[in-house]
Write a structure and sequence with these properties.
Elements: H1 2-19, E1 23-27, H2 32-45, E2 49-55, H3 63-71, E3 80-85, H4 87-94, H5 100-125, E4 128-132, H6 137-142, H7 149-156, H8 163-168, H9 184-193, H10 198-201, H11 221-240, E5 248-263, E6 266-279, E7 287-288, H12 293-306, E8 310-315
Parallel strand pairs: 1-2, 1-4, 2-3, 6-8
Antiparallel strand pairs: 5-6, 6-7
The chain binds xanthosine-5'-monophosphate (XMP).
Xanthosine-5'-monophosphate binds at residues 156-157, 205, 207-209, 249, 283, 320, 324-326.
Length: 328
């Protein structure tokens, strides 16, 4: 639409003017907000922008490669892109850890450590003045008035560094946040306007700690792989069935339950996948989505047949409250 067109034009001009010849660092998570922020900045300052994508190995199926395809050297945008493949480090630190809060803390702290080390390397090269963030209007509101938006975002979301570190590394105190006044649907419109692929623009919301909090209990590479495969099948079937996933959040998680089943002549003792689908307008309250029985059955059949290590599929009926949307 022409409004978004104007937003893009005005924002790119304003960013150019503010940044001048300086360099900008952005933590790219692959989510819609940081993706659109990256493209806007790339239009404004090109190679003066460096994006660091810390791939924690806890993304959805193929997502790390999709981010690289868009922003890497073979992609369409003019910027510097650094992908840090940190999966092994994350799995090592998460080994044996089952408590959800502890898992979140480990994942958050590792991000700061890895992204911080990358930022240090870059700032040692010189020329960096600003950090950028994909903060959007609801993030600002969530944290109350003032400039607390960035604070909430940085510890609730993957993408930012603690303020002390920002200062220590010599960045300006105030991050660049071009989407600060926009709602999610407006961010998506801007994304389309900028020519970002639809699969990125309409991506399902995904928590910062990723599949780390969708694998209930200990996180292992095998369990993450199972969750990725089951989740991909689930979303593919929902799409095929024409279910509007934009009305909420739809994903597969892996329970910590193993149970007995039978496949052919053999007894199995495998994991139970939990399919979750909620309808929500604000993510504060939510109702389980009424997915047609036949669609759920197709998902069940495909997941059990195609994903090794799964012999049971469950649909989660819990609303929020008393449940949360995620399982951990
Ligand atoms: P819950 O599970 O609290 O989730 O009902 C509400 C919404 O927030 C997302 N979520 C997170 N997003 N970092 C994030 O960026 C997190 O640590 C996190 N935990 C939950 C969740 O996916 C849902 O959209």
């Amino acid at each position: 639409t022409w409004q978004m067109n104007t937003f893009v034009k005005d924002t790119v001009a304003a960013l150019k003017e503010k940044i001048g010849d300086d360099r900008v660092l952005l933590g790219l998570s692959g989510g819609v907000d940081s993706t659109v922020t990256a493209v806007l900045l790339s239009k404004a300052i090109g190679k003066q922008l460096t994006c660091v994508f810390v791939d924690h190995g806890l993304m959805r199926k193929d997502e790390g490669d999709e981010v690289e395809a868009v922003f890497g050297p073979k992609g369409d945008f003019d910027l510097n892109f650094i992908r840090v493949n940190a999966g092994e480090t994350y799995f090592k630190k998460l080994k044996g850890v089952t408590d959800p809060e502890q898992k979140r803390k480990i994942i958050g702290a590792l991000f700061v450590e890895i992204f911080g080390a990358e930022a240090k390397k870059l700032t040692d090269e010189g020329g960096f003045k600003y950090m950028a963030q994909g903060t959007i209007y609801p993030d600002v509101v969530e944290s109350g008035a003032g400039n607390g938006g960035a604070v909430i975002k940085s510890h609730h979301n993957v993408g930012g560094l603690p303020q002390e570190m920002v200062v220590e590394l010599g960045f300006d105190q105030t991050p660049i946040e071009p989407l600060r006044d926009l709602f999610k649907d407006e961010v998506r419109k801007v994304g389309l306007e900028l020519g970002i692929p639809r699969n990125l623009v309409f991506r399902q919301p995904f928590p910062g700690p990723g599949l780390g909090i969708r694998v209930v209990g200990e996180v292992t590479p095998e369990k993450v792989k199972i969750t990725q495969e089951a989740d991909a099948i689930y979303r593919e079937e929902l799409e095929k069935a024409g279910i509007d996933m934009g009305k909420g959040q739809f994903f597969a998680a892996l329970s910590n339950l193993r149970s007995v089943g039978v496949m052919g002549d053999d007894r199995t003792y495998d994991y139970a996948v939990v399919l979750r689908g909620v309808i929500t307008s604000d993510f504060m309250t939510a109702e389980a989505a009424e997915i047609p029985w036949s669609v759920l059955q197709t998902c069940m059949n495909r997941i059990i047949n195609e994903v090794k290590g799964v012999n049971r599929v469950m649909y989660d009926l819990t609303s929020k409250p008393p449940g949360t949307i995620e399982l951990e």
